Inverse folding.
């Protein structure tokens, strides 16, 4: 059970509750048992260098002298989380939904902090779901006014926070840090899944009069959906899944439809966005200016190749330098916001440059061999053998089904931190995961063999073992 997803089902999760939770995790004297681990790692992530002055002052400040205030009041603004240590005021403005972004809010907060704490060094951090045009524009407004003695940073739940949590789990697995209390570990696992699912809740089901469990939402064809004016459409894997569908599949498939004005479920697209993407897949035409959607790295590459010479931009933390610094596996598991039209700021790189870097990472031959995974079977259906050089993303159960086939050949699964990380995962986390799969040669040590994956999976889920 994921309590965050339960509370976010049908209605949006209260944004202020994530601020309370994050403030609790970063406070060194709270009962989570992690001390100042979260606070130090978050400050280091923002400061970018372990030897920076802000990091050194934090390390030199005793726990009982670190002060935390939630909803700190400054002239003309309220700030979600503020930490005080040494000569620093470390403020965090938290957003988990793009719709809650307010114009010039960061500017008001910065001016308010400067007036209230004129003798302090101010660091104002903008914590957002991911790099979006709206967040970029708001952050640029802050960058343009901030003084040289102060600093600001743009960071994300989807990358920074999830990476911090993964790093803590990894360090516990290698005994670099003390064991994490079980209750805290459950909170962290649930929070990480909740963030990766886009802060969405569960889809509820009900039983009809014949006691058959079925979806609470009716299905409609593409033609029927085009006649509707509002609502949301459920698509397996969301926009990325729709981008992988063929024209015939889109035209013949029945999609779940909800006519409500608000939806907080993973992989449900606003009707207008669904129609736009579906029309592009059917006709092959260019996407309209102002299009915005989150897609996985391989889907972005495919889109850029299809939308040749189109003004497409991809929002990546750190921009081009951030993408160049990533390893092949890290790129494989990432997803980013894509937009068309004007480049929001320097953290958004052009589609053409993305395509060049992607080819450098994977090589022209591998990039051209990325195949669509269509008509995926449910849970434990057979996938059969794959051609040499295949590169695609499958969920954990589909991977197990594939490596259990007698003729599956040399298969490797890309998992961050490799075999140790997989062994450290709980059953619930594995069930939610999907990983890149390749055949042929093992790319590096973070890719584990299909045979080893099968052994670990069966140890985790003995009831699913295939004979």
């Amino acid at each position: 059970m994921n309590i965050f997803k339960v509370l976010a089902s049908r209605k949006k999760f209260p944004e202020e509750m994530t601020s309370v939770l994050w403030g609790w995790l970063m406070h060194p004297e709270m009962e989570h048992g992690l001390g100042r681990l979260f606070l130090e790692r978050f400050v280091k992530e923002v400061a970018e260098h372990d030897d920076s002055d802000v990091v050194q002052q934090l390390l030199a400040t005793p726990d009982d002298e670190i002060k935390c205030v939630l909803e700190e009041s400054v002239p003309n603004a309220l700030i979600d989380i503020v930490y005080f240590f040494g000569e620093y005021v470390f403020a965090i403005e938290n957003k988990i939904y793009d719709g809650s972004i307010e114009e010039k809010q960061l500017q008001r907060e910065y001016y308010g902090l400067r007036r209230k704490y004129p003798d302090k060094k101010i660091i104002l951090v903008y914590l957002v779901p991911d790099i979006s045009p709206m967040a970029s524009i708001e952050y640029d407004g802050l960058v343009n006014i901030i003084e040289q003695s102060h600093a600001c940073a743009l960071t994300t739940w989807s990358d920074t926070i999830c990476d911090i949590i993964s790093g803590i789990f990894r360090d516990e697995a290698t005994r670099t840090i003390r064991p994490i209390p079980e209750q805290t570990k459950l909170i962290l696992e649930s929070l990480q899944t909740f963030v990766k699912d886009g802060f969405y809740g569960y889809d509820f089901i009900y039983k009809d009069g014949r006691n058959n469990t079925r979806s609470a939402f009716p299905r409609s064809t593409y033609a029927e959906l085009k006649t509707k004016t509002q609502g949301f459409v459920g698509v397996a894997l969301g926009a990325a899944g729709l981008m992988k569908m063929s024209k015939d599949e889109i035209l013949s498939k029945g999609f779940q439809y909800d006519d409500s004005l608000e939806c907080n479920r993973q992989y449900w697209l606003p009707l207008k966005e669904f129609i736009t993407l579906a029309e592009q897949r059917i006709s092959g035409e260019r996407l309209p200016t102002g299009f915005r959607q989150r897609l996985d790295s391989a889907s972005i590459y495919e889109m850029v190749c299809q939308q040749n010479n189109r003004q497409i931009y991809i929002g990546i933390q750190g921009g081009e330098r951030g993408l160049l610094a990533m390893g092949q596996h890290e790129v494989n598991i990432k997803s980013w916001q894509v937009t068309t039209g004007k480049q929001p700021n320097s953290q958004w790189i052009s589609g053409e440059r993305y395509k060049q870097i992607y080819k450098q990472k994977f090589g022209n031959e591998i990039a051209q061999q990325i195949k669509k995974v269509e008509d995926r079977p449910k849970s434990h259906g057979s996938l059969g053998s794959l051609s040499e050089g295949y590169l695609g993303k499958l969920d954990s159960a589909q991977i197990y089904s594939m490596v259990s086939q007698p003729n599956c050949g040399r298969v490797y699964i890309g998992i961050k931190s490799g075999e140790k990380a997989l062994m450290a995962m709980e059953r619930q986390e594995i069930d939610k995961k999907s990983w890149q799969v390749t055949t042929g040669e093992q790319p590096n040590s973070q890719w584990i063999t299909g045979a080893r994956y099968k052994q670990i999976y069966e140890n985790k889920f003995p009831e699913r073992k295939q004979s």
